[in-house]
Give the backbone structure.
Amino acid sequence: MKLACPLCGARDIREFHYQGAASLADRPDPGAPEARQEFLDYVYMRDNPAGENRELWFHAHGCGAWLVATRDVTTHEFLSVRLATDKEPTT
Amino acid sequence: MSRLAQGGLIDRTRQLPFTFDGETMLGLAGDTLASALLAKGRHLVGRSFKYHRPRGIMTAGSEEPNALVTIRRGNHAIPNLRATTQELYRALDARSQNRFPSLDFDLLAVNDLLSPFFGAGFYYKTFMWPRSFWDRVYEPFIRRAAGLGRLGLEPDDRLHDKGFAHCDLLVIGGGPAGLIAALAAGRAGLDVILADEDFLFGGRLNAERIDLDDQPGNEWAAAIVAELRAMENIRLMGRTTVTGAYDGGIYGAVQRVADHLPAAPADVPEQIFWRINARHAILATGAIEQPIIFPGNDRPGVMMAGAVRSYLNRFAVAAGRSVAVFANNDTGHRTARDLLAAGVEVAAVIDTRPDATPQGDYPLLSGAQVIATSGRLGLREITVQTGSGRQRLRADCLAVAGVWAPALHLSCHLGARPVWRDDINAFVPADGAVPGMRAAGAVAGLRTTRDALKSGLAVAREVIAEHGRKAPRIRLPHCSDGPVECAPFWYVTAGKGRAWVDFQNDVTAKDIAQAHRENFRASEHLKRYTTLGMAPDQGKTANMAALAIMAGLDGRSIPEVGTTSFRPPYVPVSMAALGAQGAGRGFAPERLMPSDALARKRGAVFVELGLWQRPAWYPRPGETSWRQSCDREARMVRETVGICDMTTLGKIDVQGRDAAEFLDRIYVNNIATLAVGRTRYGVMLREDGFVMDDGTVARLGKRHFLLTSTTGAHDQVWRHLTFCAQVLWPDLDVQPSDVTEAWAQFAAAGPKARDLLHRLTQADISNDSMPFMSWREVKIGKITARLFRISYSGELGFELAVPAQYGPSLAEALEESARAEGGDWFGLEALNVLRLEKGFLTHAEIDGRVTLDDLGLGRMMAARDCIGKVMADRPALRAPDRMQLVGLKPAGASKQLLGGAHLFNPGDPVDREHDQGVITSQCFSPHLGHPIALALLRGGRGRIGEQILMHDHLRGVETLCAVCTPVFLDPEGGRMRG
Amino acid sequence: MRYSGLKVFLNGLTGNRGWAPVWRDPAPKDHYDVIIIGGGGHGLATAYYLAREHGITNVAVLEKGAIGSGNVGRNTTVVRANYMLEGNVEFYSHSLKLWQNLSAELNYNVMLSRRGCILLAHSDGQLDALARRGNMNLMQGDGAELWDGATLRRHIPYLNFDDPRFPLKGGLMQWEAGTARHDAVAWGYARAADRLGVDLIQNCEVTGFRITQGRVTGVDTTRGHIGAGKVGMAVAGRSSQVAAMAGLRLPIESHVLQAFVTEGLKPVIDTVISFGMGHFYISQSDKGGLVFGGDIDGYNSYAQRGNLPIVEHVAEAGMALMPMIGRARMLRSWGGIMDMTMDGSPIIDRTPIDGLFFNGGWCYGGFKAVPGGGHVFAHLIATGKLHPAATKFRLDRFARGAVIDEEATGATPNLH
C-alpha cells in the first residue's frame, strides 16, 4: 500500500499513522446546547462505510503532515489525498 | 529407469555425491534432488500425511505434493522441502519424513488399513466417549500424529535478509512469454526485473522438445537470457519466487540465494525476502498440469506427463523402463513420442477420447481409462478399461497427461475471482484482477509457444506505451509445436478402490462424495470439511479435480461449484526470510541516551522504557542485589546529590502567535497565564475525557513554549499536538516541533544540586533569582544551556538541557562534579522510589482509564473548554465510587506490598464482588524504612486513615494496610523549594 | 443421527454411505418468531440456545453466503478467559465454562484442546499488570498462574532467553485456555440447531428491515421478505452496514486482521503463547501447522486481506521470540474483517428499535466468545433481559462513560 503525500510524493504506508474517520476534524462547539450529544457522536460514532471512506492519516515517519484521504475500503485504493490544513476543495 | 546416455541440460562432467536416507548416490550438476533420485530408479520418497501411504515423485516443480524431504542436520535441518525444486549440491543430505522406522516399512501405515473409518471429518463424530478420555488419551494421540517434517528446537543461526527493489516492470516467470516481454521492455529502456523460481530460465522450453526457428527451445531461451543479462536496465532474479501481490503494486518475493550450496559463503544470506515495488507487472507464470483421478493413482511411479517430459528432456532421466501414458489430450502423445525418441519403451497410450488417433509408433487405446494399479511400493501393472473390456499392462511408470490449469494464484491475491473458460477447461485470471498486472502466455490460457510469445510481446508493448516509450520491433520465431486438443475429462468413475484427489492430505474422491452426501457442498465447506487443498501444496494439483468431482455429483458445472480462493504466499516462505532481522535484538530499534557509553562503562544494569535503554541501577562493588544499589542511590539523592539522564522525556517546542491559546485548549490547566521564565506542571486529557499524559510546560518567550511528555507517551502526545494544530485548529498560528532528540537533558537532584551546578556554570542560580518552577539560560563553558528548576524526586532539583551533540561530554562533566559533591548517578529504580515517596505519577497510575479527579487533580481543571472536558463530564466519569489515587502503608505484621494485588475491606470476602481496588506501584522506601505503595481505591480519598486489606490470590500474600495520602514525604514541598 | 465412535465404525464398514446431511436446506418460511441475521459462530450459537434453552424453535438463521464462512472460520482458534476488567472477566469466564462441555452438548467434537495460554511479561511493570489481571481471573474462579522467568524457561525452553530484544521476565498462565477446531464450532452449532428445528438459510442476504411504529416486523432479503417477531443481528465485521439499514449508527470501525499458518510440523509448540510487546501469538494446530497472528493492519477495511507490513512484522516478532521458528515456512495468510469498537469490548444489547437486538463489536476476540455470546444473546432475545454474565456490554455505555477499555487507548479502534 502506498499513499501519495502531497509534500513528499508516494510513500510506503508504513511511514503513516492511521487516525480514523475524517469526521474527527469537525470538533463540535463545546458551548452548543447539545454539546454532550454532539461530542458523543464525534468521539464514538462512525459511518464506517463499505466503500469510499474519508479518513485522516499522519505522515509520522515523514514530513509530519496530517492528510485527509478518500479511500475505497473494499479495494484499499486511495482516490484522493490533500493536506488537512488545505481547505476542502469546492466541487 | 535411469540416466540416458545423452541429452539433457545437466553437466555430466560434474558428479555430485549425495545421500538419501543414509544411502549415498551420485547425481550431476544441474539435477534437482528429484531428478537425481529418479536417475537412480527411486520413485518412493515419502509417506502421506494421514494414511502413511508410500508416495513417489509426481511433478517436476513447486506444486509437488508427495516428494517432501528434510535436508541438512542439527539446527540447520529444514523440513518439508520439495525434492523437485531442491537443487542438488555436493554432499546434500536428505531424509524422508513421516515414517517410522523406515520409508519402506512404516508402522503407521496401519492407518491405511483403518482408512474406512477415517473418512472425511470422522474426528468430529467420535472421541467423545468417555468424556475424560478426550483430554488425556484422544487429543494427545491426535496431536502426536500431526505434521510431516520435524522442527528442531535450536535457534536457526543462518543469515537471512530483506531486500527492497523498485522497477518499472516486474516480469513474473521466465518462460517464453516472460522472456520475450522482458526483452521488449528491456530494449525499450524500461527498468525491468525478471523473476523465475527455477534456477534455469526458459520454463517449459527446457522441458519440451520444441524448436524455435530450427533452434532447440532451450538454446533460444539461453540466447535471450544472454542478451537480457547484458542489459543494465534488467535485473534477472533466478531462484526467486514471487509469492504475493499486495496493494499499490507491491509484490513479495523470496530469493533462494544459497539453498543450492553446501553452505552459504560468509556474509551471504541463505535467502532474501524482497519487497518489490513495481509500476507494472506481467504475470507469465505458466500453467500446472492437473491429474486425472483414478483408483490407485497414488502409487509411486504414477506421475504427471509434463513432469515425465521434464525429467526426460531436461535431466536426461527416464522415469521408467516401460512407461504407460494416460491422457485426455494431445500432450499424452507428445510424451510418448519424446519417450520413444529417447529410446524408452512406451507400454501404451491410454486416451480417454474415443476418437484419438496414434501420432507415433506406440500402442494406443482410445476411449479407454486406467481403473486400477498394482505394485507394493511402486507401480508394476495397470488395469485399463476399454470399450471392449479390461486389460492389464505392465508398466513401472504411468504418465498422466491432464488439463493444464493456469498458475493464476497471484491474480487472486487482491480478492479477484478467476474466470472460467469452457474452451480450455480452465480458469484464467480476471482482467484487472491486480491493478497494473497483465497476464501473458499459458497463464492467460494460451496453449502454443507461438501464442505465448505473441501475448508476451503484446502485453509488453502495452506497458511500454504506458511508460511513454517506443516499443522495439521484435520478430517472433517460428515454433514447432501445434495446438493442443484437450477433453474435459477429470476423473474415472469405473473401477474399485480409492482415488486420490489431494495427495498430500489424503483426500479421496470418496471423501468428496461423502462431503456431498453430508451437505458440505459449497466449495468452502468442501475444502474445510475434507481438508482438501490445505496441505503444503495448497491444492495446486487437487483443487480443480475436486471441483469437477463435486460438480459431477450434483449436475453443476465447475464454475457453479466455485473456485476456492488463493491466498499468499504462492509457495511456502521460510519464517527466517520473512522475519529476517527480527531475530536477536533486531526486532525493534534501541534508543540510546547520551550517557549510554558512560553508563555501560560504569556497569549499569539497563531496562527498557519506550524503546529507550535506561540504566535501572549502577551497582557498586560489594552490592549483591538491585535493592542495595537502589536504596543507596535513593538515599544519596535525599542526602547529597544524584544525577540522572532524562533525555528520554519527550520534548516538544511550540511557537507561534497563538501558542498560548493553543496550549490552553490542550491542557486542563491554564497555560496562557504562565510568565516567561516560568515552568508549570500540566495535564492533558484525551478527547474522551480520560487523562492522556502529564509533564511540564516552560514558557521560553511570549510566543514560545517547551513541553515535556512522559517517555512512553511521547509518540501519542506528539501526534495529538500536531493533530490539534493542523486538523482541529488550522487557523491558529502555531507550530509544534518535536525536539526530543535535539536536546540532551540531565537531572541533578538533592540538597547539593546547586553546589554541583556551581561547578559547571557561573550563572546565578540562587533560590531568589531562580526559584522553584523557573527556568533560565546558562552558559556551560561556551555552550548555551537551558536550566529548569523542576523536581521529580521531591528534592532541590534542576534539569540541564544542552544540544544533543554536547550530551556525552556534559554527562562526563556532571559525573565529575557530582562525585566531587559526594554524589553520583542514580537509575530508574531509585527514580521510581523517589517519585513514589512523593506521590508523583507514572503511567502505572495514568493507565489510560483514569480521570483527572481519580488522580486527585480535579482542581486543576480550568473554567474554559479544553480537549476532553465535555466528555469528562459523563456520569460514570464523575461517579463517587470511582477508584481514586491513594497511598498505602503496611499496618500489620506483613509488610509486603505487591503491584497488581487487589484491595478489600477487612472482613469482607476476597472475591470479585468485594474488590475495592488495586496497587499500581510499590517500592521499599529507604527514607521511611518500610514498603509504600500507590493504589487506586474505590472512593479512596474519603478513606484516608482507614484500613484496607491487600490480598494477592496469585502469590498468596495478604497485608493489612493503612490508607494515606499519596505523598509520603515532605507534603509541604519545602525540600524542593529550598 | 447421533454421532459416536460406533457410528463411525459401522459406517466405515459400509463405505461411509450411511451418513445423512448435517443440516437441511429449507426454503424460508413467511414468518418466524425470531430471525437471526448472520450464520457465523454467534448467530448459529444464538439460534441453538434459543431452541435449546428457551424452547423457541420457530427460528431462522439468514446467512449471506455459506454457514461459517466469516470470522468463525478465519480466526486463530484461541479459547481463553484471561481478561482484566469487570464486564469482560465474568463474560469470558461464562463462555469458557460453556466451552468445557460443548462437544458433548452438541454431539460434535469441536476438539477443544486445553493446552494453556501464556501471556508474556518483559518488565516488572508488565508483571504487575499481569498480576492485577491474574488476580481478577482467580477471583472469578478461572485459572491463573504467575510465572517468573525461570518457570517460563522451564516450560518453554525454546524462547529466546539468551539474546532477547525484550527480556522474558515471566508471564501469566491459564491452563484451562487453549484452542478449538473453528469450523467444527460453526458446524456443530449449525447441526444441533437444525436438529432442534431451526431453519438455516444460506445464500440469503438481508437487504433491509421492515420497521413499523418503532418496531421491527421482518426483513427483506435476496430471497424475499421474511416476517419476524424479533430480529437479532450477529454479523460482526459487517455490523455497521447491517445496522445502517435499520437507521442505526454504531461505535464501530471495520478493520482487517491477518492470520497465518505454516506447513504441518511434528508437535513442537504445546501451548498458546502471546507475546504482547511483539503483537504476536502462536499455537500449533492438531494437524501440525503453527497458527499465528499479530496486530490488525490498522486501517479501515472490508477487503478480507491485508498487506506486507503486518505480514513481515509478525514474522519478525516470531523470529525475535522463538528463533527456531525460522526453519518453518509460512504456508498461507488470510484476513478477516473485525468489528473494532471504540473501547475494544463487545456490544450485546437491545437497540432503540423494538424487537431488534444487537450482538457484535467482537474486535479480534469473537471466537472464544461464541458459546457465551450465543448464550447471553439468546437469553436477551428470549427474555428481554440482560444475562447476568453480560450486563456491561450495553450500547449506552459510551454515553454514560462506562467504557470497558482493556488496552486503555481510548476511542481509537485501531489501537485496541
Notes: Residues 749 and 797 of chain B are 4 Å apart (CA to CA). Chain B has six domains: 11-124, 160-287+406-466, 291-402, 595-648+742-835, 651-740, 876-977. The longest helix of chain B spans residues 449-466. The mean pLDDT of chain B is 96.
